[in-house]
Design brief:
- The complex is a heterotrimer of chains A (612), B (506) and C (379).
- Helices cover 75% and strands 2% of the residues of chain A.
- Chain A has 612 residues and is an all-alpha fold.
- Chain A has a two-stranded antiparallel sheet with strand order 1-4. A two-stranded antiparallel ribbon of chain A has the order 2-3.
- The longest helix of chain A is centred in the C-terminal third of the chain and has 42 residues, at 535-576.
- Chain A is globular, with a radius of gyration of 28 Å.
- The N and C termini of chain B lie far apart (45 Å).
- Chain B is built from 21 helices and 2 strands.
- With 506 residues, chain B is mainly alpha-helical.
- Chain B has one domain (3-485).
- Chain B has a two-stranded antiparallel ribbon with strand order 1-2.
- In chain B, helix 11 packs parallel to helix 13 (295-316).
- By secondary structure, chain C is an all-alpha fold.
- Chain C has one domain (15-375).
- Chain C has helices at residues 15-22, 32-62, 80-87, 95-107, 110-115, 119-133, 137-145, 147-182, 189-203, 230-245, 288-295, 301-308, 317-339, 350-367, 372-375; strands at 210-214, 217-222.
- Chain C has a two-stranded antiparallel sheet with strand order 1-2.
- Chain C starts with 14 loop residues before the first helix and ends with a helix.
- Classes of the chains: A mainly alpha (612), B mainly alpha (506), C mainly alpha (379).
- Chains in contact: A-B, A-C, B-C.
């Protein structure tokens, strides 16, 4: 049985792919008389199968050593590309997480998109999405991982572009694709170079190769920087972070996955590449720097947002920044733990957000208020999700951040500050949002707010329960530290920072006599934060400017210089061909003959010359 | 065996020409399709009979023709030409099938397509330089006429430009062929004999340069490319499909067959120049494409860019890179044919190709949703998204060329991001958003307009998932043609480039 | 009857419509094509509404405070074959009825909305809630913790019932219209308007009530004594919420708070049935697609033939249905507008005429940005 499960591990991604293919008749409009729901049900069934398969596999191989399965894909001359798969508790566990969250998000979508006739296309894309993610979780080869990352880029584009007729979606989908593409292009350069230098792309072999590799520092650094560019784009790290904000134009069920597991895929690949990155200290330092800038910057930006989805999505970048720092400090274990706890809590928050949007028909948190009493499922999922995000109570992320602080943070004071700041700001922000949405008096748009139907509430509550149980599971897996470490200084500081954030948020947004923040200075600051420190201007003035002007200049050069010159030179011959030009209106046989005769004469003449 | 590929379409053309005018209007397309089907089937037979394990020529045919001229009727195929012959037969069938049912002057039109088919097939199988040249020239005439008669507003200009450029290309080739034949003292145009030439290196370089420019116009290599966008824009869809899908490949095919194949020694010296030209092609084509608003121009300049990858791999000339080069020819043949077909449908339904005018074509009931979806697939394939043929072809090109020309290869890879820029611009502008009011009553799309595109998409995905189906044909030929590159990791690690094993210049 | 010349303040595009209204016409021009489209689509709409209202009433009566209403669209009849058919999505899209219900509830207005905030309602609702949760400790606990939770659900049930009762009348009205058309009694757009107007007038005072049976006992949540009636408490709020305001579609409007595409004021919303763009029907994020999909199954043959001979035939059927549907809704709106006129339409008192005109102008100006001007086009 175990052997059968292992041999069929590659089915796990294929379920989703099969689901995606089956949606086609509905998605392309071949089925007209009936609706698209069978496609949705089939995809949910496939995802369920994938989940069951991966859970059984996880249980069956829990105690087994790591297995590597190689499947040659292309064995051509000296190029050998394999679709290798790793079966380990981490890889299969990651697949369980991806398929599990995908299942919940798809059930959620059944309710969220019940009035959307393009349901089949949505589920097709979700199936594709899930296939790429679970494949990535299991992948044991950089080549396969790169290919799957590109699939993710494509499906992100298509999912963000789901409501293609909506004006902001048009640019959002494009920007999401192009931003990631910049990262992917650099990653591809790295992958191709690595393939040429190391001669292999299997993660295992690369690790062995890296132990003895003799690279010049420059090559090692350039290679490493190219390799991290892909994850920087995928994980929405500075400077490739803005797409995530824009991607919030897409449907919420996709945002659930995007903010939890999709971004994590980038970091997951980063973790697998760590042995190569470690060849250059510059690369590791870069990782830490990018992570720190993003973590602090995104946490601040989140506070300035008034859009409910963006409020939550910016903190995704911030937490992934912490993951980057952990990888930079070569603590992959902590990076993985944080990815897990963040993914679950963030997915939960986004489910709550979806329920709120559907009930209030707005995404503006300043138009909300007083939902807590009438929406128990939604408010409790929000609270549990928030607590699972920050280090205040000993839920999931508390443990991840605690270990982060005690190990990574203790190395460097500055990094300690980063984690304290992120925790504090996130706690503050989540409290602020809670106050605005759930507390206070209802406003016009939240005056009538019945709780969402069961299709939305059930997955939310289920995930909330999982979030609450997560610490127990971590304990079961031996991932929690000894009791003695609890009381250490970093833990105390961390909790204090979280409580400070919650307290400050509470004073400002929960108390009935909250002070009004209306000063000019505050407004300026809020604007800067609301517009993401104007990072878009950075793009506009650099890459976009360069490409646009480059294109304009080249096109001008092409039209006036290259073509102009050649036309000038060609004038004489065109004159010579004038007689041809004027016969064009119909007498085809004439020019057929003319040209033919010309060619024959030419050959004859040359032949004559040749013979003499 | 191979003669059939040439004479069957000519017979078809003759049949159509001889049709009485009364039935020609209605029957030309049907008859042409019949012949195209026969050609496609025959190509299938050849593919089945072809043995990929042999490096050399197969199905050789040899007949004396005009002895004094050194012109013999000598045919044969190998792994370099067989994929291109297959693409030619496929695209000709598709083009005839998807042609407008009420095309004006059908008799002339379909006979010209069949003559074109014969010319191209002939050029790919000819093993005599002069014979190749003849076919290379023969193919010009129908193409010129088709642009000049059925083209757009500036068809006269475009057709003339095309004719002049390709005529110059032909003259240069002819000069080089004669030069080679005379100087080497072989006194014949037999490919196999000429391969044995041992000319001084400088002479070789001169001849090679002439050949490179000759084929460079056809490929086209920047700055000899300006005929291409004009020709594409003015040409009817069918011509664009054939032009991008097969005819440009005559250039790269010729470059490898008559450049690398006849002058392997000089090639080593010339390769860095070619690689640099490849970079220029990729970046220049991509940048110009970004600035365009006409869909056809975007796809045309995209072709210029993507031909650069073929050039790069050809320059590197290792067995793997040559296989990559051929794979990229197939990949580009399929993808650009698909894109031109779809742009043609958009144009025929909306009357415009201007992406600043078009909007919301994905609109389900009144737009062109399936065309839009296939277009998205096509541009993604072109941008090198895995799972489609473009990715693996480009991956092999990069992976193999990197060892020889690291900097040039990395620069070429920027093209993958730029491709995404112009194509996403095209898609998001014209397919996303709301359909403009003046386009809200588009004529219905017929299955005839969808099936060819769907068929090509299936091929693109099939080869993308199982690239060995495409690569296996050319493996042995690439090994035979290429210069084996001694795999060394030190080259890159130390940042220096391993030079090709070259004899010193005299 | 003295005709007032249009005052200069009337925008020129509206002037002909105003004139037509005052001379007994409708918002929709009276052409034979329009009559076929309007009557045909209303026939189909009548059938669909019949299914909708039965389901809404069923949910209000029998799915009262059911937290997991798995079979709420089955109207109490769950058989394997029906289950398979529903899984195959071969069914009426009741989601659209709920969508309209949510629109009414969220936008509020009218006596029903006001009643739901009174202590009397709360008292009656609490009694029903108590009866319902008594045997269910989980729900009882939830009710203890979140007392407003189930109360809000009861408010929603009231809207289920209210909309159901409204549509019951409308469905009947449209089916009778179709029968009269078949008998040759309806031959022009004013005939259609007169039929609908008469129907509205006849039902105007029909009481709106709501009671549920829990364990054999009846709990009156909206008793007759509250005095809610058809026209002011369901019809008018319905027109406001569904015809005019509705919700922005995910598929065409960005909900991004920073983009400010959606007004903070609900009164500014103009996404309703008279405003919606028919072109994207069938696409992603366009809820009316559901209605059009339901309508396509019941169009009478004479209308189906018209569609098949036009444009892309069957391929863009739902867009054409939507265009016809909007035309028919302009007729219904005309009936409502005329029904709400302050004075008889044929009054000769200049003062009353001026007031009538002012009433019409308020509506016309509100509808100026709707599809009103577009449905004038193919005259």
């Amino acid at each position: 049985m175990t052997q059968f499960l292992i041999d069929t591990v590659w089915w796990v991604p294929l379920y989703g792919l099969l689901g995606a293919i089956v949606t086609l008749p509905w998605a392309v409009g071949m089925v007209r008389r009936t609706g698209p729901r069978p496609a949705a049900y089939f995809n949910i069934l496939m995802t369920l199968l994938a989940l069951v398969h991966s859970i059984t596999l996880l249980l069956a191989t829990w105690a087994l050593p790591v297995l590597h399965l190689d499947r040659a894909w292309l064995d051509f001359m000296d190029l050998r590309l394999t679709l290798s798969v790793e079966v380990s508790s981490i890889s299969v566990g990651a697949a369980v997480l991806a398929t599990g969250l995908s299942l919940l998000a798809q059930i959620f979508a059944l309710g969220y998109l019940e009035k959307d006739w393009a349901l089949a296309r949505f589920y097709g894309l979700m199936g594709f999405f899930e296939a790429a993610m679970s494949g990535l979780a299991l992948s044991d080869s950089l080549f396969l991982s790169y290919a799957l990352l590109e699939m993710l880029t494509l499906s992100t584009y298509l999912l963000v572009g789901f409501w293609y007729a909506q004006p902001l979606v048009v640019t959002a989908a494009r920007d999401a694709f192009l931003t990631k593409r910049v990262g992917d292009m650099l990653l591809l350069m790295g992958v191709v170079s690595l393939s040429a230098i190391a001669g292999t792309l299997g993660f295992g072999q690369l690790g062995i190769w890296a132990e003895t590799a003799q690279l010049s520092p420059l090559v090692a650094t350039l290679l490493g920087l190219a390799l991290i560019a892909g994850p920087v784009g995928k994980c929405a790290q500075f400077p490739l972070n803005l797409w995530l904000d824009e991607a919030m134009e897409g449907p919420n069920p996709a945002s659930i996955l995007r903010n939890s597991v999709v971004v994590a895929c980038g970091a997951y690949v980063l973790i697998r590449m760590e042995p190569i990155l470690a060849l250059s200290p510059v690369v590791l330092t870069t990782l830490i720097a990018i992570g720190a800038v993003t973590a602090v910057g995104a946490s601040l930006v989140a506070i300035g947002q008034i859009d409910i989805k963006r409020v939550i999505s910016h903190s995704t970048s911030a937490y992934l920044g912490l993951v980057f720092i952990a990888v930079g400090m070569q603590r992959q274990d902590i990076a993985l733990l944080l990815l897990l706890t963040h993914a679950i809590a963030k997915a939960l928050l986004f489910m709550s957000v979806g329920s709120i949007i559907l009930t209030t028909n707005t995404q503006n948190i300043t138009e909300m208020g007083g939902l807590a009493a009438r929406m128990p499922a939604t408010s409790s999922t929000y609270i549990v999700g928030s607590l699972g995000m920050v280090a205040v109570l000993p839920l999931g992320s508390f443990w991840a951040l605690q270990q982060w602080a005690t190990t990574v943070g203790s190395h460097l004071m500055a990094l300690m500050l980063v984690v304290l700041l992120v925790n504090s700001l996130t706690a503050f922000n989540l409290t602020r949002v809670f106050g605005l949405i759930f507390w206070g008096q209802p406003q016009a748009k939240t005056r009538r707010a019945p709780e969402v139907p069961w299709l939305l509430a059930t997955p939310s509550i289920s995930l909330a329960i999982i979030t609450l149980l997560l610490p127990l599971m971590l304990n079961q897996w031996g991932l929690l530290p000894e009791m003695a470490v609890w009381a250490s200084m970093p833990t105390v500081l961390l909790m204090a920072s979280g409580l400070l954030g919650v307290g400050l948020g509470g004073v400002l947004y929960l108390s009935p006599r909250s002070p009004e923040l209306r000063g000019e200075g505050w407004k300026v600051l809020q604007n800067i934060l609301a517009y993401d420190f104007h990072t878009d201007q950075l793009y506009r003035l650099t890459v976009v400017f360069a490409v646009r002007q480059g294109a304009r200049l080249t096109a001008w050069f092409d039209q006036y210089v290259v073509d102009g010159m050649i036309n000038l030179m060609g004038v004489a011959s065109i004159m010579g061909g004038e007689s041809l030009k004027y016969t064009i209106s119909g007498q085809s046989r004439n020019y057929l003959l003319t040209v033919f005769v010309g060619v024959i004469l030419g050959i004859a003449w040359l032949g004559w010359a040749f013979l003499n | 065996m191979l003669s059939v590929l040439i004479w069957l379409p000519l017979l078809g053309a003759l049949t159509i020409v001889l049709l009485p005018a009364a039935i020609a209007e209605k029957r030309s397309q049907g008859i042409a399709l019949l012949f195209a089907t026969a050609i496609a089937l025959w190509t299938g037979v050849i593919l089945v009979q072809f043995d990929p394990a042999l490096p050399g020529l197969q199905f050789i045919e040899s007949l004396a023709w005009i002895e004094p001229l050194g012109l013999t009727y000598q045919l044969g195929v190998d792994g370099l030409s067989i994929p291109l012959i297959a693409i030619n037969s496929l695209l000709v069938w598709i083009v005839i099938y998807s042609s407008d049912r009420d095309r004006t002057r059908p008799k002339l039109y379909y006979s010209l397509i069949l003559i074109l088919c014969a010319g191209v097939a002939g050029a790919f199988v000819a093993q005599n330089l002069l014979l190749f040249f003849l076919f290379y020239e023969v193919e010009l005439i129908p193409l010129y006429l088709m642009i000049a008669i059925w083209g757009g507003n500036r068809r006269g200009y475009a057709a003339m430009k095309f004719l002049i450029y390709t005529a110059i290309s032909g003259i240069l080739l002819l000069a080089a062929f004669f030069g080679l034949s005379l100087l080497s003292g072989v006194g014949s145009f037999d490919y196999a004999l000429l391969q044995e030439q041992s000319l001084p290196l400088v002479t070789q370089l001169v001849l090679l340069t002439t050949i490179v420019i000759g084929f460079g116009i056809k490929i086209p290599i920047v700055p000899f490319h300006t005929w291409l966008p004009d020709a594409h824009v003015e040409a009817p869809t069918e011509v664009s499909v054939l032009l991008a899908g097969v005819l440009l490949k005559l250039g790269t095919y010729g470059l490898i067959r008559f450049g690398l194949g006849l002058f392997p020694q000089a090639w080593g010296y010339f390769a860095p120049v070619l690689a640099a030209l490849a970079v220029v092609n990729v970046l220049y084509g991509s940048f110009v494409a970004i600035a365009q608003t006409d869909m056809k121009k975007i796809v045309a300049y995209s072709s210029v860019g993507h031909m650069g990858y073929i050039l790069l791999a050809a320059a590197a000339a290792t067995p793997l890179s040559l296989a990559g080069s051929i794979a990229q020819m197939v990949s580009h043949g399929l993808i650009s044919a698909l894109l031109f077909l779809l742009v043609g449908v958009v144009y025929s339904k909306t009357g415009t190709r201007d992406i600043s005018v078009l909007r919301g074509l994905l609109t389900p009931e009144r737009g062109l949703p399936l065309v839009g979806s296939l277009m998205i697939l096509g541009v993604m394939a072109s941008a090198g998204i895995p799972g489609m043929v473009g990715f693996i072809a480009e991956f092999i090109v990069y992976r193999s060329s990197l060892l020889i020309f690291p900097v040039q290869t990395l620069l070429c890879m920027i093209g993958t991001a730029l491709t995404a820029v112009y194509f996403l611009n095209l898609i998001n502008r014209s397919f996303f958003g709301r359909l403009p009011d003046r386009l809200d009553n588009l004529p219905p799309i017929l299955w005839r307009e969808r099936i060819p595109a769907i068929a090509i998409v299936i091929l693109i995905i099939a080869f993308g998932l199982e690239p060995s189906w495409m690569l296996r044909w050319s493996e042995q030929t690439s090994v035979a043609l290429g210069t084996p590159f001694l795999h060394s990791t030190t080259a890159l690690v130390t940042g220096s480039v391993t030079p090709l094993p070259l004899p010193p210049l005299p | 009857m003295v005709q007032l010349s249009p005052p200069p303040s009337v925008p020129s595009v509206l002037a002909p419509i105003l004139e037509r209204l005052e001379s007994g016409g409708a918002l929709l021009p009276d052409t034979p094509e329009n009559v076929v489209e309007v009557v045909g689509i209303l026939k189909s709409y009548g059938v669909v509404l019949d299914a909708y209202w039965r389901n809404l009433i069923y949910i209000a009566q029998h799915q009262f405070l059911v937290l997991f209403p798995f079979f709420k669209y089955f109207n109490g009849e769950v058989t394997p074959s029906k289950l398979l058919r529903y899984w195959w999505h071969d069914r009426i899209n009741y989601e659209f009825a709920e969508y309209c219900m949510k629109g009414m509830m969220w936008h509020g207005g009218g006596g029903l909305d006001a009643y739901l905030d009174t202590p009397e309602f709360e008292e009656r609702a609490r009694a029903a809630i108590q009866a319902k949760v008594r045997s269910n400790p989980l729900m009882a606990g939830l009710n203890q913790l979140f007392p407003a939770f189930l109360l809000e659900q009861v408010r929603q049930s009231c809207y289920y019932s209210g909309l159901g009762q409204f549509w019951e009348v409308m469905s009947e009205m449209f089916l009778v219209l179709s029968d009269r058309y078949d008998r040759g009694e309806i031959s022009s757009i004013p005939d259609v308007v007169a039929h609908v107007k008469q129907g509205l007038v006849d039902a105007a005072a029909k009481p709106i009530t709501y009671a549920v049976d829990i364990k054999g006992q009846t709990y009156e949540i909206i008793p007759k004594s509250v005095g809610l009636t058809f026209l002011p408490d369901t019809a008018v709020p319905y027109v406001e919420a569904v015809f005019l305001r509705s919700f922005p579609f995910f598929g065409t409007v960005s909900y991004n708070a920073q983009a400010n595409q959606i007004s903070p004021e609900q009164a500014d919303f103009n996404y309703g049935a008279l405003f919606a763009d028919p072109l994207p029907i069938g696409g992603a994020g366009i809820p009316p697609t559901l209605l059009m999909q339901d309508l396509r199954h019941f169009i009478p043959d004479y209308l189906h033939k018209v569609y098949q001979d036009d444009g892309r035939g069957e391929d863009d059927l739902r867009v054409k249905l939507c265009i016809s549907f909007q035309k028919s809704m302009f007729c219904v709106t005309t009936a409502a507008v005329l029904g709400l006129m302050p004075h008889p339409q044929d009054t000769t008192d200049p003062q009353e005429q001026a007031e009538n005109r002012a009433h019409l102008m308020v509506w016309l100006e509100r509808l100026q940005a709707s599809r009103l001007l577009r449905v004038q086009e193919n005259v």
